[in-house]
Amino acid sequence: MAVTRTFSIIKPDATRRNLTGGVTKMLEEAGLRVVASKRIQMTKEQAEGFYAVHKERPFFNDLVSFMISGPVVVQVLEGEDAVKCNRDVMGATNPADAAEGTIRKTYAESIEANSVHGSDSDENAAIEIAYFFKPEEIVG
Description:
Blueprint: E1 3-10, H1 12-16, H2 20-29, E2 33-40, H3 44-50, H4 60-67, E3 72-80, H5 82-90, H6 103-107, E4 116-118, H7 122-132
Antiparallel strand pairs: 1-3, 1-4, 2-3
Keywords: ATP-binding, Cytoplasm, Kinase, Magnesium, Metal-binding, Nucleotide metabolism, Nucleotide-binding, Phosphoprotein, Transferase
GO biological process, one term: CTP biosynthetic process
InterPro entries: NDK-like_dom, NDK-like_dom_sf, Nucleoside_diP_kinase
């Protein structure tokens, strides 16, 4: 299997509770390596652009409001089949359905405040990484 990259966000509910280190530790223990990371306060425009695919969905405005409600940590992760590995360690979107030992089962407050975002494909990972990082910021 090839070493690939994926994109991750540690969301405001997790940063507010000082869980950045705990989440990152779980990612690293799953075999992923952080090759870029920064703590940012997402602007409304950034959040709207990032989640534009959901613009017509009823939850779009609440999602944008949540994502700008506090700092987030955006990360580029690298590892064997990184997208799948990250999605496995994150767990199901709804923490009630997430497996024991996953980030969302361990840390999520609700389906909305579910602590992390992760790319769902290699193609989207590339788009999402480029949205927040310049190539020279990724050092592995």
